[in-house]
């Protein structure tokens, strides 16, 4: 199976990622992919379709989809919609694992769905307003959401084959988590193989099979995303940002940045200064 692995970075000021779905304008398809984070897709207006295990789940206003860690899924958004997405790092559920880094959520019983939707809406509203103390209120609401998930949506009677499937993808998730922690260091396929006890050839095939990308490209993508974030939140020089994020020099950083984002880091920073805010070029 060849599915893309999605790299998820939490918001700068939150322990999770919160955003409006990028397919909000319609005419959008997100191909099959997976990630280690647990995801909530909450449709506030409009409609879209979710696909998990070849099964379609149409979502209308007031409905949401729970996507489990390592669950392969895709999204079709043919028409405009207003959808809030929350992506929660798997590690936040570590006290509730029912297997090796395994937890499973289902909302087959809809009695608490309205409460969950209201929490998601309020989290996003408070975050956008950014009034004094917003971060504390967002965290309070977020932990109410986590409590609701583990108390009302968590399942502990999962079949062994489901756990095995998740375990296969978890192998790569362990490695990608390590890369995200050490991306600024001098990483290469050989050193990573020694760390995890695989041969370089096996590890290379694992990346290509489950992440749909080779190791070198994956590592560079992580470095670029962190560098992109630093450009929006730091006054460091481009040379310093390059070094902070694992690039050998500013020239290599500029080449890679332009190839991915179609503009130079200096041009992106200038755009930020002109707009007075961070823009999303991901």
How much helix, percentage-wise, in residues?
40-55%
Shape: globular
Q: Note the run of SSEs as H and E.
A: EEEEEEEEEHHEHHHHHHH
Number of strands: 10
| Biggest sheet character | 8 strands, mixed
How large is the count of helical segments?
A: 9
Low-confidence segments, ≥5 residues, pLDDT <50? 278-282
Q: Compute the gyration radius: what is it?
A: 20 Å
- Average pLDDT works out at 88
Structure write-up:
- This protein starts with a strand and ends in a 7-residue tail after the last helix.
- It is globular and about 55 Å long.
- With 282 residues, the protein is α+β, with helices and mostly antiparallel strands.
- The chain is built from 9 helices and 10 strands.
- The protein is 46% helix and 20% strand.
- Helix 7 crosses helix 8.
- The model is unreliable at 278-282 (pLDDT under 50).
- The strands form 2 sheets. Strands 1, 2, 3, 4, 5, 6, 7 and 8 form an 8-stranded mixed beta sheet that branches. The protein has a two-stranded antiparallel ribbon with strand order 9-10.
- Keywords: DNA-binding, Transcription, Transcription regulation.
- This is Helix-turn-helix transcriptional regulator.
- Residues 173-271 form the HTH araC/xylS-type domain.
């Amino acid at each position: 199976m060849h599915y893309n692995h999605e790299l998820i970075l939490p918001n700068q000021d939150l322990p999770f990622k919160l955003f409006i779905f990028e397919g909000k304008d319609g005419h959008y398809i997100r191909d099959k992919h997976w990630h280690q984070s647990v995801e909530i897709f909450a449709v506030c207006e409009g409609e879209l379709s979710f696909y998990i295990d070849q099964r379609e789940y149409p979502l209308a206003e007031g409905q949401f989809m729970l996507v489990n860690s390592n669950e392969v899924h895709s999204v079709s958004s043919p028409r405009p919609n207003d959808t809030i997405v929350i992506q929660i790092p798997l590690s936040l559920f570590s006290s509730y694992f029912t297997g090796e880094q395994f937890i499973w959520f289902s909302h087959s019983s809809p009695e608490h769905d309205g409460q969950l939707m209201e929490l998601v809406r309020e989290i996003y509203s408070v975050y956008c307003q950014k009034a004094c103390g917003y971060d504390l209120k967002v965290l309070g609401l977020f932990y109410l959401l986590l409590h609701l998930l583990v108390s009302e949506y968590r399942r502990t009677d999962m079949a062994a084959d489901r756990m095995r499937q998740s375990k296969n993808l978890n192998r790569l998730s362990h490695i990608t988590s390590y890369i995200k922690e050490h991306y600024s260091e001098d990483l290469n396929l050989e050193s990573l193989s020694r760390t995890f006890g695989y041969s370089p050839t096996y590890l290379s095939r694992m990346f290509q099979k489950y992440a749909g990308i080779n190791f070198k490209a994956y590592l560079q993508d992580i470095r670029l995303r962190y560098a992109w974030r630093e450009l929006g939140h730091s006054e460091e020089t481009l040379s310093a940002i390059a070094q902070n994020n694992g690039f050998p020099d500013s020239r290599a950083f500029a080449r890679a940045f332009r190839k991915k984002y179609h503009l130079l880091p200096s041009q992106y920073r200038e755009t930020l200064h002109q707009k007075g805010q961070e823009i999303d070029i991901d």
